[in-house]
Amino acid sequence: MTEETKKPADNNKRKMIAFLILGIVTLTGAVVVYFYLGYKSVHISTDDAYVEGRKHTIASKVEGTVKAVHVRDNQLVKKGEVLVEIDAADYDVRVNEADAVLNAERSRRNEVMSAREVAEKQLFEIKARVEVAKAGLDLQKANLRQAESDFRRAENLLKNGAISSERYEKVRTGYDVAVVQVRAATEQMKQAEALLDTQRAIIKQTETTLQSQSELVRHKEAVLKKAELNRGYTKILSPVDGFITKKSVETGNQIREGLPLMAIVPLDDIWITANYKETQLEKIRPGQKVEIKVDTYPNRKFIGRVESIMAGTGAVFSLFPPENATGSYVKVVQRIPVKIVLDRDEDKEHVLRVGMSVVPTIIVKDSRGQGAKGSSEIPKKLESSNP
Description:
The protein is an alpha+beta fold. The chain has helices spanning 3-42, 89-159, 165-232, 380-383; strands at 43-45, 49-53, 56-59, 64-69, 76-77, 82-86, 235-237, 242-245, 254-255, 260-265, 270-277, 289-294, 297-309, 335-342, 357-363. The protein is built from four helices and 15 strands. The two termini are 81 Å apart.
């Protein structure tokens, strides 16, 4: 074989090897792309995600001078633990003043109650006196009727000469006495009834005074209660278990009511907010498993579940929501927040911190091609929110 015939053969061989390598590379790339697309179709991830948690701002309900601060930055505190103490001397004085005023008003109320009891007893006695006067009047009226009858009879007997003038005068005098006695009994009856009306008016006035005094006592009781509450507010307690952050108070500071002093973040109640593109949400459902990678811990993976999907895009709830009817609309793919909660005991050590960047991957299908749904692994706090 000559040298000229060898060159075309070598070239053909090289071309065959090149085509073979190209075919292998193309096939390998196609397989890789196929499996990658298959993986991406069931593993939906985003890097626009971060750790969120509840932040409890601690502020004073009263003003005053800080007497003591019992916590330091980043300290773990328990619910009910004393965080800050305010000097309570002024509030002790206010409580004592309110207590003294309340006791004075209660004494006045007791005096009015005693006066009412005395007035009611007097009313009972006056009623008895009225009954006695009424009975006396009835008796005098009966005597008058008898005296009048005797007087008429004596007049007839005198005309017939059956009695003497002396006897007649005596009967007439008895009649006149009976008339006067009836007038006196009637006057006594009127005086007793007038005294009864006066006593009833006194009792009514006493009851009005008692009602007003009782309301005043209730008002002073409320003042004392408020003073005691304000004194209790001089000890600021932790509302939850958590870690102290943003502490800005020191001993000796003069603080005002409502002034933020620090914040408490309970790291046992954190979640992930993942802002997925609206084009990624078609297969996402509450209860699906989520694998979470944290930038701070690249070699560790956390497991969670989708709890809920926000009712709108982030732009809609921004300070200045978009106005698409202005004539200059440009379509932009929107992002919708998805709330992801960690499985129980996934973060026992509380290594996650609010604001950390994470990359969550939602597994929307299992190995059998079925839609991934919540199971017994879903935390209890998801059970009430899942449809």
